[in-house]
Amino acid sequence: MTQIASIVVSALSLLMKRHIGLLASILALLVSSIAIAATPRNVVFILADDLGWGELGSYGQKKIKTPNLDLLAKEGMRFTQHYSGAPVCAPSRNVLMTGKHLGHTEIRGNLQAKVHFPQFNEGQHPISASTETLAMHFKTAGFATGAMGKWGLGPVGSTGDPNKKGFDLFFGYNCQAVAHSFYPKFLWRNDQQVQINKKAIPGHKKKPTGEVTIAEYTGETYASTPILQEALGFIEKNKEQKFFLYLPLTEPHVAMHPPQASVDEYPREWDDEPYRGQSGYLPHPRPRAGYAALISDLDRHVGAVVKKLREAGILDDTLIIFTSDNGTTHMAADPKFGIGGVDAAFFNSTAGLRGFKGSVFEGGLRVPMIVRYPAAVKAGSVSDLVGYFADWFPTLCAACDLKAPENLDGINLWPAITGEGKAAERNPLLWVYPEYGGQVAVRIGDKKVLRRNLKTKRPEPWEVYDVVKDPSEKNNLAASEQALIEQAVSILQKQTAENELFPLVIPAAKD
Predict the structure, then answer these.
(1) What is the pLDDT of residues 86-106, one digit of tens each?
(2) What CATH number was assigned to the domain covering residues 41-418?
């Protein structure tokens, strides 16, 4: 924008007196160029799976190699106070796709579809036919729409089928449980199963004794390979028209399944014993190297997408967003290995934040967020703008000059991201999460009010933290913040609709 302004000034000074007609034509062309530059033609939204706050180089990671994502941050804006929609997969994605927070969404936890729909043998509880998604909105506006990766919002043939929720093309895992393995028997292309392995490698197994090898849990086709190829093919096919591409990639969610070559990039001395599956998912001979390899593979996928956009000549016409659906994989009873063998302490995966996936503490909700669009987003910038997944529906609409639905819970962040103004007045960020004991949280200004174990016989008391001054949430301010607790309870009670699938009673401030 600065270069364009300079050209305009030069044109005015040189041509004002003698070439009024020519000047008018030049200015018209420049105004048209400015309008085009300010509005991205395409959107690519990349969603990692269980990527922790501190697991990228640009967010302080020292051991795991993420050069492509670090470059994306260098060329764009990195956010320090961005939050996921929920502490786990399905509800977080539901918030992203609908622009509704957890008090209003249908899906507030991970629930298999077969619990209420026995005709389906895979997939999660479907979002309803009446639910409008971000993809539906973009499709109606004339964008080609594609999703490649992990869906988790309804089986094929259900009301939550991705083809019924706005995507022209879906390729990948429909079901989160199937996605526990990177070597499934098949993936879905729309409503058709595409076989990629003769036999599925299960995502869960224990091996208490004997040698643990990678080969033992390797099939013919690593699922991420065809998923990435479909994404690149979608870009190639639609490079001449506007498109919305959603990439909910599966890394680094366990089971730990990266190719041998990726594992070999990391030092053997990292691992002095194998992981034997004692904390769930699959055994691995080199679990620390294996986990780092998953994240490096994720980084390579992002690099391949960026490279394809560049080759297609549309990189700078494309708004790229990268984030994660929740915090890093949580701990387990084993003192060394977390769920799936992940050693979050070794990598400092939460970078000092408290909690993990499944928690409404910062470590479960605060996620990396990178935005690249050079025409409007300052390269190398860092933003402390507070936002979360509910905001992306109205924000992407604003970025692409689309009118957003009126009943969204999120706000438009685009003016603040581009520096052209301020974000809309911030609604309190709200999470109503009935799983992992039952949890609620509200962020009001710099403080977060939360309560845990609401569905147990002994609920925890209300807690209050200043998450700006105390991001590790060590200093509970509840004793001096009764008024703030009462405000948070009022917000929760007003903003939480009844939900028979995921019931959770909001207690009073003094209960």
Answers:
(1) 999 999 999 999 999 999 999
(2) 3.40.720.10
